UniProtKB/TrEMBL annotation:
Subcellular location: Secreted
GO CC, alphabetical: extracellular region
Family: Belongs to the peptidase S10 family.
Record keywords: Carboxypeptidase, Glycoprotein, Hydrolase, Protease, Secreted, Signal
Main location: secreted
Recorded superkingdom: Eukaryota
Protein name (record): Carboxypeptidase
């Protein structure tokens, strides 16, 4: 048993965190099944959770979660099943690790778990959360890259000025594209009405 346990949230829907995170990044074997010297297993036990991919499925598609709070509830139920009956697991602090889209509900999940711990319904030591390039607010992220790269000395003054010009041009093009394209408005309206399946299908039409 290692010092702590890392639970990984997959990057995005329909992509298995087991395949990418495990075999391509931090697991004991790479995609050619060769040993990885830098595996996180040297320091931590690893737990990968996959939803709606491969052998993870529901008989009725209506049972899939529809928002982040439902995702958090399901994950908390999973933790109860894993930890409450296993005293060995209870001794290792749990860290919830997420990258890209997984970071969108990482914190929500952590708060749900903490509430269950405080209520005495979940027996585990909570270590914390780790967010790796989490895709939480795309627009804010894109328009902050120039400032971030300058702050960490990856851009000089000239490079920063160029990034600002490109950001303004990008924002101008996006706003004009949205205003001139009825499909954007259609998708926005469908989302506001809660018709997410139709909105997704319309996005395919837009692409």
């Amino acid at each position: 048993m290692n010092l702590f346990l890392c639970l990984f949230l997959e990057k995005k829907g329909r992509v298995s965190g087991v395949g990418i995170r495990n075999f391509q990044e931090v697991g004991p074997l790479d995609t050619s099944l060769n040993s990885r010297n830098s595996t996180w297993l040297q320091k931590s036990d690893l737990l990968f959770v996959v939803i709606g991919t491969g052998y993870s499925f529901v008989e009725d598609t209506k049972l899939f979660v529809k928002n982040d709070l439902e995702v958090a509830d399901d994950f908390t139920t999973l933790l109860k099943k894993l930890f409450n009956g296993d005293e060995t697991l209870q001794k290792s602090p749990l860290f919830i690790v997420a990258e890209s889209y997984g970071g969108k509900f990482d914190v929500t999940f952590a708060l749900s778990a903490l509430k269950a711990i405080e209520a005495g319904k979940l027996k585990l030591k909570f270590g914390g959360v780790a967010l790796g390039d989490s895709w939480i607010s795309p627009a804010n992220f894109v328009f902050s890259w120039g400032h971030f790269l300058k702050d960490v000395s990856r851009l000089d003054d000239n490079g920063f000025k160029q990034s600002q010009r490109l950001e303004k041009l990008f924002w101008y093009l996006i706003k004009n594209l949205i205003s001139q394209n009825s499909l954007f408005e259609k998708i926005r309206q469908l989302i506001q009405e809660g018709q997410y399946k139709e909105a997704t299908n319309s996005r395919g039409e837009l692409e």
